[in-house]
Design brief:
By secondary structure, the protein is of the alpha/beta class. The chain folds into two domains: 90 residues, Arc Repressor Mutant, subunit A, CATH 1.10.10; 244 residues, Vaccinia Virus protein VP39 (Rossmann fold, 3-Layer(aba) Sandwich), CATH 3.40.50. The strands form two sheets. It has a seven-stranded mixed β-sheet with strand order 5-4-3-6-7-9-8, sandwiched between helices. α2 packs across α3, α3 packs across α4 and α8 packs parallel to α10. The protein is globular and about 75 Å long. The protein starts with 9 loop residues before the first helix and ends with a strand. The structure holds S-adenosylmethionine. S-adenosylmethionine binds next to α8.
Length: 364
């Protein structure tokens, strides 16, 4: 790696590029291990050394393929091998990164986006062409909502009522006494369900235009016996005038940058929020200018997510503002202000890499 201010040599770039290519290949195999249940099998077998057959049998998979996968994992130092016995183990300190529902990390869930993006690769190539399609519909992405809820529920379950809502003491008090909450673009509803369960005096509306995601939320609410949450399948661009000044708290996680008509929907959110209500917009944390995101590994991942998902699903709709995941603090603030919000603070919630824009209505 070149030192700051130094010119990079071809050899230095080759080294960096080689690492990037290797990590790409290993990521794909790691994702296969998560989806196929191989990591689960290794976790079930504890950190004791096991044969290929024992691991394959525990996962219910073919031994020959499992052997090849273990080859990748050993070469990449993810699974350990005892050279004397040729037996494999997953050391305890790595387990939480591959455990579903882990409170430690959501990296495993992020990795499962790779095959979903792979599934749209050819169609995305067409979108790039001048005469190609505008974008891609959500239905092109197999299993998107399950990946998304795996990804977002770790933070929701471990931080929402533990530290996020308490970081806004006034809202917390109101939620305890009973208010009307909207979780816009709720997906499978992990946040809506936590709000409803934790604040039984409040009523919660989870709204999303995916029928599949809404059905999932409804099922979970029924299983939990929750009567203070309603899941509504609707396009946020069509929120009725009847909702004007009826919502005390609006929550969006990872939604606004995806909206084809974010400008109009922000105006609608302003219209339905009560005059003293609060809007929490949680969205990826970036800067708007590319130059301010330079040499930032995390943001390079966000831009990839944008290129393969957030941007094409937004551009799919006619008249889309096409924000992309990395629209950034500057543009987001501008959109919020234009919709009539005052951005009271932009902070990073505990345990999250996102930005929380806490907004109230501008006094007219
Ligand atoms: C990235 S997902 C986030 C889901 C959820 N908030 C979470 O944290 O798991 C964005 C969600 O916005 C929904 N969405 C996008 N455009 C919408 C629109 N115009 N109206 C309603 N929902 C929309 C999608 O269906 C999807 O569930």
């Amino acid at each position: 790696m070149a030192e700051a201010g130094e010119k990079e040599t071809p050899e230095q770039f080759e080294k960096r590029f080689s690492t990037l290519v290797i990590h790409g290949f290993v990521s794909l195999s790691t994702s296969l291990g998560i989806q196929s249940g191989l990591f689960e099998a290794l976790i079930k077998l504890k950190d004791e050394e096991r044969t290929v057959k024992e691991i394959a049998d525990t996962a219910g998979l073919k031994e020959r393929y499992v052997k090849e996968w273990l080859g990748v994992m050993v070469a990449a130092d993810i699974v350990d091998i005892n050279p004397e016995t040729e037996k494999y183990s997953l050391p305890p300190h790595r387990i939480p990164f591959f455990q579903s529902g882990s409170s430690v990390s959501d990296l495993g869930a992020v990795l499962t986006a790779l095959p979903i993006f792979g599934g749209v690769y050819q169609k995305l190539l067409d979108c790039l062409k001048k005469d190609g399609p505008r974008g891609l519909s959500y239905s092109e992405y197999t299993d998107f909502h399950s990946m998304m809820s795996r990804f977002s529920s770790r933070w929701v379950l471990n931080h929402m009522v533990q530290d996020f809502i308490p970081s806004m003491p006034q809202i917390e008090e109101q939620m305890k006494s009973g208010i009307r909450i909207l979780d816009l673009g709720c997906g499978r509803g992990s946040a809506s369900l936590v709000f409803a369960e934790s604040y039984p005096n409040s009523t919660v509306v989870g709204l999303d235009f995916s029928q599949e995601a809404i059905n999932y939320g409804k099922e979970r609410a029924k299983e939990k016996g929750l009567t203070n949450v309603e899941f509504v399948c609707e396009d946020a661009a069509c929120i009725s005038e009847d909702w004007n000044n009826t919502i005390d708290y609006i929550y969006t996680n990872d939604v606004i940058h995806d909206l084809a008509h974010a400008d109009k929907i922000l105006l609608a959110l302003n219209r339905i929020l009560k005059p003293d209500g609060v809007f929490s917009m949680i969205d990826p944390d970036c800067n708007t200018k590319h130059s301010e995101n330079a040499s930032n590994d995390y943001r390079s991942r966000l831009y990839t997510m944008s290129l393969f998902h957030c941007l094409p699903i937004s551009l799919f709709f006619e008249g889309s503002v096409g924000l992309g995941t990395c629209w950034g603090r500057e543009k987001a603030t501008e959109f919020l202000k234009d919709a009539g919000f005052r951005v009271d603070s932009i902070t990073k919630p505990v345990g999250s890499s996102q930005a929380h824009y806490m907004c109230t209505k501008k006094v007219k």
